[in-house]
Amino acid sequence: MFVTWRCLEGLELDPEQRAIVLACTLHFHLQRYILYASVVMPDHAHLLIRPLEKVPGVWWDLGELLKGMKGVSARRVNQSLGRKGSLWQDERYDRQIRTESDFYEKRHYIAMNPVRSRLVESPTDWDALWLPEIEGELLRE
């Protein structure tokens, strides 16, 4: 699944807060889901994720996984800011990945997001990008 969620209007995450959110996206990697890519931008996050089986024939629910990521990250970011209240918009965008080419297109989109936003010149310069085994062709625009 390709997933996007956004901060509440007017909120932006600094490098320390992006690191908190990134760590929350990685927390259950290989236990509850496989994370193929994650980027935390100043006002949104993108994931490429596949839920794993809880028990044979029953997979982790995407909504449940995201609720945990968003909830824990909001609490930790709010703690770092000394604030309370919502951090994330309730809505999310998710899209089922159906083909290998769609998978690589979304992975490339995630990697290039900070570059397209003109925050860095190279994806590897972004402080809140996680891509296992970065492939050379993935980083070409």
Number of helices, where a helix is a run of at least 4 consecutive DSSP H or I residues: 3
Q: What's the order of the H and E elements? A: EHEEEEHEHE
Question: Structural class of the secondary structure composition?
Answer: alpha+beta
State the major sheet: 5 strands, antiparallel
By CATH's scheme, which homologous superfamily applies?
Answer: Transposase IS200-like
Q: Can you count the beta strands?
A: 7
How many domains, as an integer?
A: 1
Neighbour order of strands in the largest sheet: 6-1-3-2-7
Q: What Rg do the Cα atoms give?
A: 15 Å
Helix proportion of residues, in percent?
25-40%
Shape: globular
What descriptors fit this protein?
single chain, 141 residues, alpha+beta, Alpha-Beta Plaits, five-stranded antiparallel sheet, two-stranded antiparallel sheet, 3 helices, 7 strands, globular, disordered C terminus
